[in-house]
């Protein structure tokens, strides 16, 4: 693959992964602030949210942000002559 194409692909995927990681971090932050009962459940009449899901969202956000960093590093390396 030629360097300019590799740079564009990696830069685009890096931006997408960063947006996904940011969105998942926001969801994790919002879910962490919900008032859970003794069993670790939050129910508002429509949705039943489990307290353990906050950890899953946070780990997914961390993985997406690490992937974004790795892809940005590859894009930076591909841009060099």
Tell me what you see in this structure.
By secondary structure, the chain is mainly alpha-helical. It has helices spanning 3-32, 53-79; strands at 41-43, 48-50. It has one domain (3-79). It has a two-stranded antiparallel ribbon. The mean pLDDT is 92.
Roughly how much helix do the residues carry, as a percent range? over 70%
Give the biggest beta sheet: 2 strands, antiparallel
Low-pLDDT ranges: none
Order of helices and strands: HEEH
The total number of structural domains is: 1
Q: Count all strands and give the number.
A: 2
Task: Characterize the overall form.
Answer: rod-shaped
Percent in strands? 5-15%
Secondary structure tally, helices: 2
Mean pLDDT: 92
State Rg. 18 Å
Q: Which structural class do you get from the secondary structure elements?
A: mainly alpha
- Through-space gap between termini: 14 Å
Strands in their spatial order, largest beta sheet: 1-2
Q: Which descriptors would you attach to this protein?
A:
81 residues, mainly alpha, 2 helices, two-stranded antiparallel sheet
The gist of it:
This protein is mostly helical and 81 residues long. Helix content is 70%, strand content 7%.
